[in-house]
Each structure stands twice: as C-alpha cells, then as structure tokens.
Fold each of these.
Amino acid sequence: MTDHAQDQADELEALESIFADEFTLKNPGETPASFFVVIPVDTEPGEDPVHTELHITYTESYPEDVPVIKLENSEGLEEETEAELMEHIQAQAQENIGTAMVFTLHAAAKEWIETRLQRDRDDREAKKKAEEEEKLRRELEEATKGTLITPESFRAWWADFRETELPKYHDLSGMKKKTRPTGRQLFEADSSLQNSDLALSSAEEQTVEVDMAVFEGLDLDDIDAELDDE
C-alpha cells in the first residue's frame, strides 16, 4: 500500500531545499499541505516586471492524482495569458500523475512564460520593422509620385489648353499672326505672275505659248499645302 503522506513529506522537504526563500508553506503541521512557490521570470531592460506564484495544495491521494493548482499574485501577465499558462500546467500535471510533480510543473511554467515573452518581443520587433518599412515606402512614393496620365485626364487638359493657352501662340504681343497667302491667292492678285514665264522665255529669245486650259480643275490650295509640307 502506497504511503501518500510520506511521499508528500519527502517532496516538501526537497522543495524547501531547492527553492529556499521562493518556497512558502502556508499551513505548517497540517495535512494536506498547501504552499506557494515563486516563479521568477527574467525580463529585459525597459520591460515591465513579470511575476507569478504557483499555489499547490495536495490531495490525500497525491501523487496518484493531480493536486489543486492555482496561480496567484500575478504581475505583468494579461488575464488571457494567465489562462493559457494554467492550461499548460494542468496538461503537464496530467502527464506526470504517479510521481512527485511540483518541481516539473514549476519548471514547465517558467519555460512557458519566458517563451511567450520572447515571442511577444519578436512580434513587437517585427511590427516595428514593418511600420518603418511602410513609412519609408510612403516617403519614397511621395518623393517620386507624379500625375498619372489617363486618356480622360489628357482630353480634359487638352480642352483647357486649347481654350486658354493655345490662342496665345496665335496672338503674340496682342497681334494676331498674319496668315501667309496661298499660291492661288498670289496668282490671282498679281496678274504679272501669269506672264512671268513668258517674259523669261522672251529674254532667251524663245516664244512659248501657255495653254491655260491645262490649269482648269486644279486646286492650287492643295498644291500650296503640299509645298509647305515639303
């Protein structure tokens, strides 16, 4: 028959030796024993302190069943985080039924807290880095940002330019640009041009007859435009 009382007394003696000032027996001389074990947590400079205590109360049949486990005097742990830690401790207790488990539970709790703290640090660092990269991206985008040209925006610009700016190029210094006369207009305005080729031929003692009928139907404005293009 297992002597549960002796197993509990042996574990209490070992716990007092291991944890010293971090161990506090709540009900000396009474059974089942109830005690606190501080879970020290290392934090980095600038971080808020983190502290909690494992409160264990033996049952009459411990370690053949799980003791009553609580977390008390917690500091720096959010309620949700503390609940997750408690679930982890209870799971460890179930795995260690039949053996003295308080030291194992204490070590598991300490490791869980420190792992969570490191994860939170990594998350904060990743968030900070992402915010800095986003800020840099926005600054670069702002520095290189131009006006996006679309067919609609170009048509709107061109309509405004044609109405307000284009006339300035045709009315410099308040004077409208003189329109260059076409070849037909010159030809019709100065009859001497009609005889210029004949005069040149006479000077070379040559007689040339010009058949004006060949010019009928020709659009001299189109010819003039083609010459301007060349």
Amino acid sequence: MSINLLLVFLCTSLTVAQPVASPPDWDQFALMARYIVHYSDWVGISTISSRDPIMDYPFANIKTVSDGSSPSVAAGIPYFYISPMDLSSMDIWKNPQASLSFTLADQYCKEQGWIAQDPRCPRLLVTGVIARVDEEEEREFAKDALFTRYPDMAYWPEDHGFFFAKLVPESILLLDQFGGAADISLEDFLGAKTPEQQLAGALFSN
C-alpha cells in the first residue's frame, strides 16, 4: 500500500472525538436529555418492519447520529445520513414512525460501575417520525453536524443514494435514577441550552 493510499485510509476512518463535559445533575431532566443526545455517537433505532417474514414486527438497528457539530450549536434534533438500501430506510418509506434508544452505558456508566440496566445509568427514549431533510439551510446544518464529527461519511458511495434525515420528536422519556421515567415536554427539551450555548448567549447579550 502506498503512503498516499495509507493516508487516505487513515483520514477516512476517523471519528472526530469531542471533549466530553460532565453530565448535568440527574434531576435536570431536559438538560440531561440534551446532553445524552449530543454526546452520543450512535443510537438504537426501532421501526415497524415492512419485510416478510417479519412484517409489522418491531425491527431494531443501529445508526450514527449527531445533533450538531459542537455543543455550542447543538440543536437537540437527531440527524442521520442514510441510504434507501438500508433495512430501516425500507421500513420508513412505508411507515415513518420510529423510536430511538440512547444510553451513556459505553463510558460514563462504566466509570461509575453501573451496568446499562441500572436505573442510575442514563438512557433516553425518543419517539417520533423520521423525515427527510430537504430544506437547504437545514440540510447544510445536518451535513455539518454529521460530516464534521464523522469525516468518513463524505467518502461513502455516491451511487447508494445517501440522504440526510432527522427524527421529529413527539415523546421524550428519560431514565436516570430510581423512581421511573421523566416525561419531558418538547418545549422543555428544545428550550434547554448547553453550558456552551449559555455562555455564548451571555457574551452576545453584553
């Protein structure tokens, strides 16, 4: 393998790591939900299968996700870059309803000594509708959100028909402590701001 080819391979295989801030207190439900969405690189997605022999069964898959290229611009809306060839995409064309399952089990919970099903290990369940992103400004935001964090996406095959999509949330449930799930309103969820956004707002208001 030539040096040039090796460099291309290395550059296209990287995921850009973000400095990970500490999560909010467990009872700051909307902030915790926004934290989980932003600092998650992947999410479990469940659709209603459109394929035999599992027609109408729940179908689970994994997707790379981003709500913004950095905490200061994070929007809270999960964006995806997907192909019509993907099994979940086939389901979405027939029925766009879907649920997302986020978790902090990979790193934060392990550091605390909690397994994924421990009630203290934050998990977020977001249900809504998957929609294609076609409006130019939002499409540019989705592209920046995903391609900045996952540069290899820019090199995915053009003939696979990849497009940008998002989940439009309708229900947001957070489990991060004993006592059951917190039902977070869409208004509270979208209105929550990261510390970086709060700082930027303070700077520009002066």
Amino acid sequence: MAPKAKSQTPTPAATPVANKKQGKKSAGSKSKGSNVTGYIVALLFVGVFVGTLNYLPTQLPTVHELLEIGKRAENKPYTNFAEFYPFYKTQHSDSTCRLSHVVGTSLVTLTFVLAPGTLVAALLAGSLGMLLSPLLAGFQTGIAEGAILVLTFLLTTKSLTGKLWLGFFVLVAGYACAWYGHFFHEHNMPATFIYPTYSLLSDFKMFFNILTQAEPL
C-alpha cells in the first residue's frame, strides 16, 4: 500500500488584533527613534546657537549694522546682545522678580528636556529673531518681531511634536512668571515689549548665571 500523505494544517491568517499589535510595536519603535533623533538635533542646535551668540556680538558687530534698514528707533539704542545685557540686568534688580524668572525658565527648561522638539523650535525662533532684530530696528516696539517669533515657535512645535499645546504651555509658563515679577515686584515694563529676542536670550543667560552663582539671586 502506498503511504498516506500527511495532511498539512493551513497557517491561520493574521488576525486584525495581531495586526494592530504589530502596528503599535512598529509605531513605538519609530517614536523611540524619532525621540533620539530629536535629542541629537537639539544638541547640535544648542552648540551652534550658543557658539553664534558668543561670537557675533564681539567679532562681527558689523553684521547688525549691515542688516539695519532705515533709521534706528530712538528707544532702541542697543545694536547687539553684548550691549543689551547690562541694561537687562538693571531691569531685574528686585530679587523676587529674578526668582519669578528662574521659576518660569525652570518650567520651560523642563519642557525642553521632556519634549526636545520644543527646544529645537525655540532655537529656530531665537535664531530667526537674531536676524530680524536689526531689520526691525526702526520700529519703536517689538510687536512685529515678537509676533514672528511666537508664530515660528508654535508652528515648529506643532510640526515636530504634533502637540500645539506644548508650545502654548512654554509661552504661558515662561512669560506669566516673568511678567508677574515685573508688574508686582520690579514695577517696570518688561523689556521684551521692545527687544523680544534679546530679552529672551538674556533671560536664559541670567538663569544660567544664577544657577552657577555668577550672578546673585
């Protein structure tokens, strides 16, 4: 007698549940990979941006002069960040005001660490502001410059993280704390209304100097 052929059990087709699980795993691995990429890009931006900040005011002051269009507004005498920061310090002489800035900047920095896309967005907006500042030096207020910075930051945050609310959280946490110190303790107008970019950079410089005890609280 010829041997009977072994019956082959058909391989069951993948179920929708299994497909969903596989999809979640692949999405999770992609998310982890994008997070790592985000951290790397953020670190590169930090290095380039900090290096540019340290270099431009001292070595290339004519860059700001070349970019200026028309007559500079009388209430905007500072042509670069190095000139502006000593003035910024005079506007933050109250210790409670400085503390409110530290609290707000701490919340913002924590958000940068947890969601590096917001850091990249902030660095991109800050870099754009450095270019716009001399171009808009003829305006007496920083409304136009500030609006462009905010829109750039929010749109980039949305693009990189998919969460627009993160951008609004950074803005509210940072500026609400800082303005509380100005309006209720320092009793002066925040310099961000005239110099939005320089004020933003100065806030982080003051934050770093206080943490490293280079400046008193």
